[in-house]
Amino acid sequence: MQKLLMILILSIFALGNEFVIKPHHIEVKLKCTDCHKEANEKDYKALDSNSCLSCHGSKEKLAKRLDFLKGKNPHNSIHDNANLNCYTCHNEHKPSFNMCNTCHNTKTWMREIK
């Protein structure tokens, strides 16, 4: 209950911020400076996949976690293997985008992308 309350409070606080942090990152108490290394907030730059992988592990590790999806593994697809940029689908400060849905109906085998 306390954890849920903390997430709710931080989410409400974040509503006034242009760069809202996703709830799952709030839950692990991620701060802006955990990803952005610039000294001044005004100098923050867009991140690349390497920034994501510094916490989430290698692309191969992420692909292995979804091996149970077999030929439908979005982190190791028949189209791109494990070569996609994280930001093709996942976004931290705006809604994520399920690129697979542009051609496939993924509702039966894929949950919402965070």
Structure description:
33% of the residues lie in helices and 0% in strands. The chain is an all-alpha fold and 114 residues long. It is globular, with a radius of gyration of 16 Å. The two termini are 22 Å apart. 4% of the residues are buried.
Helix content: 25-40%
Q: What does the average pLDDT come to?
A: 87
Morphology: globular
Order of helices and strands: HHHHH
Task: Tell me the total number of β-strands.
Answer: 0
Share in β-strands: under 5%
Class per helix and strand makeup: mainly alpha
Alpha plus pi helix count = 5
Oligomer: single chain
Characterize the biggest β-sheet.
Answer: none
Poorly predicted parts: none
Layout: helices, strands, pairs:
Blueprint: H1 2-15, H2 23-27, H3 32-35, H4 49-56, H5 59-65
Task: Fill in the keyword field for this structure.
114 residues, mainly alpha, 5 helices, 33% helix
Summarize the structure.
Helices cover 33% and strands 0% of the residues. By secondary structure, it is mainly α. The radius of gyration is 16 Å and the shape is globular.
